[in-house]
User: Which sequence fits this backbone?
């Protein structure tokens, strides 16, 4: 358990720990995102892509990718003295989706990472979180060689509700990723508050 002092001379504060999933298509940058922001050495379960897997794993658009996550990525970031996020990166290939239900248990919310060059690759993650009422934010990973689109254009292309945040980010940049994670926490808290509010007559 992590304890931190809020002020000098005061008793240690036990922080609230929240679980956030990082999902999206194959090669979209989930492992990079977790690694960029984690304050501990991230746990990675990557294996080298093999010729046997090439007919199964669609590597179009990610020809330079040589490894793949086969279970999960794990990292941790302290946003405030009293708030710690545990990040769980999901595997992107269809054959590992059976792991998603286990990883999603107890999650406060999620980041659906998207690549505008292969936007359809994140449809499955969007559907997954919508069906399970898990609050999520779409993070558009702005690759150097990808065209830039306004957040609203991405929202329309994904056909998602207007209250779901869509943010542009760089999965390699710690501060950019922190903003995305803050957005997830804020969106999840707003969603929880809306559920608690009594219906008006």
Assistant:
């Amino acid at each position: 358990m992590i304890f931190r002092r809020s002020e000098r001379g005061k008793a240690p504060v036990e922080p609230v720990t929240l679980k956030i999933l990082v999902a999206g298509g194959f090669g979209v940058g989930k492992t990079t995102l977790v690694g960029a922001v984690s304050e501990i050495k991230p746990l990675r379960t990557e294996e080298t892509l093999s010729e046997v897997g090439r007919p199964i794993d669609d590597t179009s658009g990610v020809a330079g990718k040589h490894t793949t996550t086969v279970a999960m990525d794990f990292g941790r970031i302290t946003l405030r003295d009293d708030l710690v996020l545990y990040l769980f990166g999901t595997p992107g290939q269809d054959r590992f989706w059976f792991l998603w239900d286990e990883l999603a248990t107890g999650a406060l919310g999620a980041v659906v990472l998207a690549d505008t060059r292969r936007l359809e690759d994140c449809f499955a993650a969007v559907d997954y979180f919508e069906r399970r009422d898990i609050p999520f934010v779409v993070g558009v990973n702005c690759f150097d060689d990808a065209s830039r689109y306004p957040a609203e254009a991405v929202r329309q292309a994904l056909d998602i509700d207007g209250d779901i945040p869509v943010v542009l980010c760089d999965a390699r940049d710690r501060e950019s990723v922190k903003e995305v994670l803050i957005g997830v926490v804020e969106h999840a808290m707003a969603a929880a508050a809306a559920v608690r509010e009594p219906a008006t007559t």
Remarks:
- The chain has a mean pLDDT of 85.
- The radius of gyration is 18 Å.
- The chain has five helices and nine strands.
